[in-house]
Amino acid sequence: MMTAHAVGRWVIGAVLVALAGCSTTRMSGDQLARVAKDWALGIRASQVIPVYPLTEDLQPGDVFLVETPLADQVKVYSEKGFLPLENLVVRLHPKGYRDFYRGWPGVEDGKHAPPRRWQFPKTAGEEVPADYSDAPLAAFPTYNFSVSRSGGLSLAIPVQSVPVGLNLLDTASANGTITLKDAYTYGLPARAMDDAVKGWGRESREYLQQYAPPPVEPGGKGPAKSFYLRVINRVYLVKTVDVSLFSNRATAADASAGVPGKVDLLNIGSDTEAKKRFDEVNKVLAAASGPKGEAPAADAAAAPPISAGGSVRVAMATSRSVSMVESFARPLVIGYLATDYRILDKGELGPPQASLAVIEGRPQLPATPIPYSGCDSNCGKLKVWLGDDFNNKANVKQLTQWMQQQPDAVALPDLMTGPYPDLRRRAVAEIVEP
After folding, report:
1. pLDDT tens-digit readout, 96-106
2. Could you give the CA distance from residue 215 to residue 223 in angstroms, rounded to a whole number?
3. Which of 35, 289, 351, 426 has a 20 to 30 Å separation from 329 between CA atoms?
């Protein structure tokens, strides 16, 4: 029987192969793209736009310039399964969290708006680990996948557990499942985001004007190509990923050059030394993938660090299967929902459209934009009278009843910053300062 120390020496070779490149066969660009698409398609099935690679630095209010024509966006999204997040124009900090999450513990606007309170909570002025326990929960299904050394490992799957687990099994191919756990979501409705976007757009008209549609040449076919602003209004994050691999063959043979022969890794059904082997494997994972010079974890329960700032540990294993738990240092964004604004002539913005519908090529009814005129003096008086985020319910009710009696009535949010100065003047004169 192989000792825990011998298992550890075998695992060192396997893990180093996994971390150094994971295969003696280099994956082609097409193979990487295929795996990336498979991952993205799984996320897309949950009706969100995939983020690839995973990132922590994406939040509601991020505004991206979309320079790819709509028809090409649909093509890229269909072929790759995701759209690159590039050309970040501005990060807005919209208000409305306190009102939208009314009664939710600790959700505020300004300095304590999500996600900072969860990312970097502080106690008595000291930094403590990220704590998303108060964040809204989300849930995702389990995704199935297959990996094979004949085409290289699935490096395009953005979790390290897959190549590490495949090398631990010393197998040529495997089927697996990925379960996204500890998932969270937060965001703002598109209407709450609209004022922030339109306000920034009004101040940035000169910048946006350079992306106005070019004139259509005589005899040209179809409308001019347009630029868009894509505004993130909701994100989905994951803290923990469970990966289970089931070997299709007993050994990787030729593919495991430099790694000692197959070992019955952790057959817990017959091996009374399983606990020691788990400890040894997880210590090796810490030593092989943690920062240089860092001491390994004391036991399997203490998840060892990996280079991405999180941890990987073996949770269950036999000679033909292995289950691993990968935890990120802080939750990472895996998908989002957004709104698109077409950039019109003179740098004005068109009406908001759901990005998911746009890039999937679904038809949408035409809409007319409401120009953003800014907050004039009467708007300021109404904001004070109505309270922050319309939280003075008695005054909101009074203004709503007054509005219903007006021949030119509009929705209260549109009244504040839309092109309705006379309506605002009458509201102030008749009910705010009668």
Report:
1. 898 889 888 87
2. 9
3. 35
- Cα–Cα distance measured from residue 402 to residue 382, given in angstroms and rounded to the nearest whole number: 13
DSSP 384-432: HHH-GGG--HHHHHHHHHHHHT-TT---HHHHHHSS-HHHHHHHIIIII
Amino acid at residue number 355: S
Residue 147 backbone phi and psi in degrees, to 5: -135, 150
How many C-beta atoms lie closer than 10 Å to residue 25's C-beta?
16
> Rounded to 5 degrees, what angle do the CA atoms 40, 45, 46 make?
105
Q: Could you report the per-residue pLDDT of 159-217, keeping only the tens digit for each?
A: 666 667 766 777 767 788 888 889 999 999 988 888 889 889 888 988 999 988 877 66
Query: How many CB atoms neighbour CB 282 within 10 A?
Result: 26
DSSP 305: B
* Contact call for residues 168 and 281 (beta carbons, < 8 A): yes
Could you tell me which residues are beta bridge partners of residue 284? none
Contacts of 344 (CB under 8 A, 6+ apart): 212, 213, 350, 369
According to DSSP, residue 222 is labeled: S
- Encoding tokens for residue 39? 């991952």
In angstroms, the CA 296 to CA 156 distance is 27
Which among 242, 241, 262 is positioned nearest to 167, based on CA atoms?
A: 262
* CA angle 144–147–152, rounded 5-degree value: 150
- Phi/psi of residue 300, each to 5°? -65, -25
How far apart, in Å, are the Cα atoms of 48 and each of 51, 53, 359? 9, 15, 12
Q: What are phi and psi of 415, to 5 degrees?
A: -60, -40
As a whole number of angstroms, the distance between CA 221 and CA 130 comes to: 54
